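Sample intake sheet
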Amino acid sequence: MAIVIEGLTDGALRRLIGKKLDALAGHLHRPPTAVHVGFRDENGPRGGVDTRCALTIEMPGQRALHATDIAATARQTFDLAFEALERRALKEIDRARDGRRRAKKYYVAKRLLETGEAPGRARRAG
């Protein structure tokens, strides 16, 4: 997994970003191919809440996951954007797992026809 960090000079924050992204990659079903982290000062040297962090994780065979946020410091904006990205990644994991767990309609219809039950009168377990 290639991690590209742009717009950041703080070495300690770079190491933290690497650790957090590696931990997130360990939870994913397939390892990401690339991660892009970009920091930008929105309104220049005037100050204020204007540091933007954009995170993009490229996944093989899936659409890329993207999150962005804005805060006063680079650390705060990374933490906020990473939380949003982590929620999206976990939602994708749950969505994929739920798709595998649910019985497909053709399978259910075949099972109902084999047992001879009417579609509206499925038996309840319990």
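Comment: The radius of gyration is 22 Å. The mean pLDDT is 83.
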